[in-house]
Amino acid sequence: MSPLAAPAATDIGAYVGERISDIEKQSAATGESLRETAKWVISGIAVATAGVIAGTTLSSLGALDYGLRYFAAVGTAAIGYLALAILFALALTVIAPRNHTLQEIADGTRMRKGWQREFEAKLKPLLPDGIDDLKKFTAFADDPKAKDGKPLAGEKLVNLNLTRRWIEAKAKSIERDLQFRRLKFWTFVLTPVIAIAFLAFSSLANPPAEKRVPVMVKTVDVDQDDLPVLRGALASPTCAVPKLPVIVLAESPSGAQDVVTVPAAGCPPVRLRLDHGRLSKAQQ
Questions:
Q1: DSSP 8-state secondary structure symbol assigned to residue 239
Q2: H or E element: which one contains 260?
Q3: CB 168, CB 134: distance < 8 Å
Q4: Contact at 8 Å (CB) between 137 and 165?
Q5: What are phi and psi of 271, to 5 degrees?
Q6: C-alpha radius of gyration, the chain, whole number
Q7: Quick one: how far is CA 206 from the chain centroid?
Q8: Spatial separation of the C-alpha atoms in residues 180 and 173, rounded to whole Å
Q9: What is the mean pLDDT of each run of 10 residues along the chain (284 residues)?
Q10: Residue 131, phi-psi category: left (phi > 0), alpha (psi -120 to 50), beta (remainder)
């Protein structure tokens, strides 16, 4: 049913004009609120992302070889930036919106089918009597004629123009809501993607520094009973000295150590086992 049927005919212009003004003010206030919310959402994500990137030493990325780690780092950064770009683009549709005309809504021009159905459902109660969809209304509004085929004129034409303005104001409000709902949905979807992508990039671009294991060198007082074994194990009998310098390679829970002799002139390194002060050949 048309909104024009609500009041008496003599009050229709004032009634519709007042209602249109209310809708336009409400739409403007809602649009401003949504724009500010969109700005805060995008600003928060951008600041958090900048913090992650600022903590990443990009020189470390340049120091990586062109291998799997390098391309994985570049790939995760690309995914993060792409997701961020999508969010910025969606936010711009809320911050600086482009409104569809009634004709574009009726034709579904550059619009998802779900959006078009929602427009139709919410605008249908505002259509004049005898018109049941938006496409018929836009065709009638472009070439308004009475039932006798004569062009619409006078009060009826004024009322039609007021109705069209009312529907356009309502459509604008609906589109603001749809744009913000789309931004909200993709914010929830893409924010984890952005966070994971840039955290992965930070980790891949800054590999942990190699841990340097301190070399443990010590001097072993060789037991006299071990000298024959050492003379046979070492390259030369002269290498079996009473105080033998060794490097500790590993230590077992029992306290036994795998060691290697410190190389010297004529004495290449030899691996031995040191068990509670006694030296023996290491097990191969």
A1: G
A2: strand 257-261
A3: no
A4: no
A5: -85, 130
A6: 41
A7: 20
A8: 11
A9: 47 65 69 73 72 58 71 87 86 81 88 90 88 88 83 82 85 86 88 86 72 73 82 80 85 82 83 84 70
A10: beta
